[in-house]
Amino acid sequence: MDANNKDLITQLIAQNQRLLQNLNTQRHCSCEVCQLVSEIIGREVPASTEIRVSFYSDYGRNIKLGERVFINANVMMVDLGGITIEDDVLIELGAYLISVNHQLKPKQRKELELKPVVIERNAWIGAKAMILPGVTIGENAVVAAGAVTSKNVPANTVVADIPARIIKKIKDKKKPRFFAAF
Q1: What is the pLDDT of residues 61-81, one digit of tens each?
Q2: What sign does the dihedral 17-22-24-30 (CA atoms) show?
Q3: Dihedral (C-alpha) 122, 123, 128, 132: value to the nearest 10 degrees?
Q4: What predicted TM-score, i.e. pTM, was given to this entire model?
Q5: Which of 99, 85, 91, 89 is nearest to 43 (CA)?
């Protein structure tokens, strides 16, 4: 990261922190919450998306939100590495989505490693779950409350535990609907 980018990122983080403080300490209607979060992430939050405060991020500009997303209170998004949340995702109380890590070697520890987090369509992230850098949560997958995911979660599965492991597959047994034309 060159010095110009570092200065710009530092400015955006400072602006983000001011906006987050306003968002989380003042009274706002749902449209004001969407407007403030839109300013934080630098793009419009879809009107169909609901975000409950308190909401936290470190950078903000690398969050992408789909349609009909629900984000419950006290969710933290560490997004410098990028966080994409597709349509119809549910994120419950106190979940952490983390796209940044530090280097393991002591002399490089202050260097950042950025890996995007992707939450695919219709996934459900349980309360206090933690999604670590570089993880993709597959379509329709469920991350149980308190789980810590360090590996990708396949579509249509439920993971739980620390570290998260598959505990079941989701089988949608919907019967086809037939409508008679009269």
Answers
A1: 999 999 999 999 999 999 999
A2: negative
A3: -130
A4: 0.89
A5: 85
What average pLDDT score do residues 77-95 get?
97
Burial of 72 (0-12, 13-18, 19+ CB in 10 A): middle
What whole-number distance in Å separates Cα of residue 147 and Cα of residue 176? 34
Token digits of residue 67: 């349609």
Q: Which member of 6, 18, 43, 102 is catalytic?
A: 102
Assess whether 28 carries a catalytic annotation. no
